[in-house]
Amino acid sequence: MYKNVVEFSKLTRTAQEAAEQIGCSVAQIAKSLIFKDAGDKPVLVIASGINRVDDKRLELFKADANFVKGKTGFVIGGVPPWGHKQKIKTLIDEDLKQYDLIWAAAGKNNAVFPTNFDEIVEKTEGMVICVK
Fold first, then answer.
1. How many domains does the chain have?
2. Strand partners, 115
3. Strands (E), 1-132
4. Is residue 1 a part of any domain in this protein?
C-alpha cells in the first residue's frame, strides 16, 4: 500500500520526531489529522508539519483517539494520508506543493514513507486549500 516504508526504533508520533529521525525539515512532514465536521463525519486534513490547522476557520472540531481509530483503523500518530477503513473527505495543505519529497506516516507511530504532493492529491482525491 505504501512504497519504501521506513521503520524506526523510536516513535515518530509528531512531525518534529519524524523529521529528526528522517533528517528532513519539519515542513516536509505531511501530518494526517482527523477532525469532525458539524455532522460528526470525519474530515482528514493533511498539513505541512510546520503549519497549525485553523480548525475554527475550517469549521472543524477535534476528534478523540477512539473516533480516529474507529474511522481510519489507525492510531493517532500513525494515521497515513490514505488507506483508511472508509473514504474520508480530505483537505490538503497547499504549502506541501513546494516540496519534491514529502514524508507521511505509514500506519504505525514509528513508520513513514516517502511521497509527493501529486501522489497525495491523486490517492486521496482531496481538495487543496490553505489550512492555516
1. 1
2. 102
3. 6-7, 29-36, 42-48, 61-62, 89-93, 102-105, 111-115, 127-129
4. no
